[in-house]
Design goal:
Structural class: alpha+beta
Organism: Pontibacter indicus
Strand content: 15-25%
Distance between the termini: 99 Å
Radius of gyration: 28 Å
Protein name: TIGR02117 family protein
Number of helices: 7
Keywords: Membrane, Transmembrane, Transmembrane helix
Number of strands: 9
Strand order of the largest sheet: 6-2-3-4-5-8-7
Helix content: 40-55%
Pfam families: DUF2459 (PF09601)
Transmembrane segments: 36-58
Order of helices and strands: HHEEEEHHEEHEEHEH
Length: 255
């Protein structure tokens, strides 16, 4: 009899209570964290929708709505890569020669024959670590959007005049407007006491561009596109009340 009892204990099904605790623990964990995670996702989705709606609404409200483009003057370009906009200016005019501030010796692939120079402003880390969209990381994206971050100016010398197309829009402005735009750009660069810009060495994407330390913080409500939109405002051109998206900027210079 004792032998049978021992054999029964040896070969009987083990106690299932510990195994039942696993799904129970998972359920309790989900009750505590799962609902919170779903609430976070729902909140993020609502914020995204509100942000887009605000961008579309405020982007459709014009500033300097009575502006009429000059028929003669200095031609600049506003360019768009689908996400990010830049300002492209002549290298030299009667008002400024950009080579006096952006030294050609710092641009190995550029020379005195280059006709234009492009300016963009944005998140410093994003610029440094994301030469192409495939290089974008979740950490960089979240940090640049949800936390005020350091900024940089991206400068690129361009070999020949641009041609108008969907992504390159010419704008004719007066000398007074150009002077205001130049001052806006100059004020965005961090400068040494002697007035020289602060070059960030070795961070360009190729031999015709460079990065410089910039003023201002990048965040969800002050983006690269709102900087270009600010340039339009500064020179009295028609602009959007707020322009977080590139197509909002381009709409103002096309209309």
């Amino acid at each position: 009899m004792e032998f049978k009892r021992a054999a029964f204990r040896l070969f009987s099904i083990p106690d299932t209570k510990p195994f039942m605790c696993v799904p129970i623990a998972m359920y309790l964990f989900w009750r505590k964290t799962g609902k919170g995670f779903l609430a976070f996702l729902a909140g993020l989705a609502i914020m995204t929708v509100l942000y887009v709606l605000a961008g579309l609404t405020l982007g459709s409200i014009p500033v300097n709505s009575s502006y009429a483009q000059a028929t003669e003057g200095i031609e600049i370009f506003v360019t768009d890569n689908g996400v990010h906009t830049d300002l492209v200016l002549p290298v030299k005019t009667d008002l400024i020669d950009w080579r006096d501030r952006l030294y050609l010796q710092d641009f190995a692939g550029a020379d005195s024959s280059f006709t234009h120079v492009g300016f963009g402003w944005g998140d410093r880390q994003f610029y440094m670590e994301t030469p192409e969209w495939k290089d974008l990381t979740l950490t960089t994206a979240i940090t640049s959007l949800f936390w005020p971050t350091r900024t940089a100016m991206h400068v690129e010398y361009i070999a020949q005049p641009l041609r108008q197309n969907k992504y390159q829009q010419p704008v004719i402005i007066t000398q007074a407007q150009y002077q205001a735009l130049v001052q806006y750009i100059l004020n965005t660069f961090q400068q040494q006491p002697n007035g020289e810009f602060l070059l960030i060495e070795g961070k360009g994407y190729h031999t015709r561009d460079n990065f410089y330390e910039a003023n201002g913080k990048f965040h969800l409500f002050k983006t690269c596109n709102s900087w270009v939109n600010g340039g339009l405002k500064a020179m009295g051109h028609r602009a959007a009340l707020w322009a977080p998206f590139s197509f909002v900027v381009m709409r103002q210079v096309r209309d």
